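Q: I'm building a small set of examples for a reading group on sequence design. Run inverse folding on the following structure and report the sequence directly after it, with nothing in between.
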């Protein structure tokens, strides 16, 4: 029983580690998405500025190319994180299933131990009852 409790504790820790890893990937992906949205808003604002100024309009095209390259790089990183999130999600699911197996096994063993103890107590009570009955009959 003690070994099972240790296994449960270790698997719970492993599950927690996998969850932290998954959340880290999700947070990183959300930051990248926010950066991509910020770049889009920035390009829009620069476009409005370029429409009002000839000097700004001359530098707008190279700016849009640079931002486009950065957005493509962000999209690639987000795609990589999608794969990492899927993998981490599967690892969390597997760790959870392992933990549940050990918890169920532990519960079954505890239930068996309680049933065995109850049978032992009942046998002891039955023996006490029989002894009392014999004494009353004899005496």
């Amino acid at each position: 029983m003690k070994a099972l409790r240790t296994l449960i504790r270790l698997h719970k820790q492993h599950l927690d580690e996998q969850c932290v890893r998954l959340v880290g990937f999700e947070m990183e992906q959300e930051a990248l998405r926010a950066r991509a949205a910020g770049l889009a808003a920035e390009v829009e604002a620069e476009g409005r500025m370029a429409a009002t100024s000839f000097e700004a309009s001359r530098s707008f095209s190279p700016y849009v190319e640079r931002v486009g390259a950065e957005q493509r790089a962000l999209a690639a990183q987000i795609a990589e994180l999608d794969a990492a999130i899927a993998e981490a999600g599967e690892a969390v699911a597997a760790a959870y299933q392992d933990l549940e197996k050990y918890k169920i096994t532990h519960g079954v063993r505890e239930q068996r131990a309680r049933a065995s103890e109850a049978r032992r107590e009942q046998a002891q009570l039955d023996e006490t009852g029989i002894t009392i009955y014999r004494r009353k009959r004899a005496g």
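Helices lie at 2-52, 54-138.
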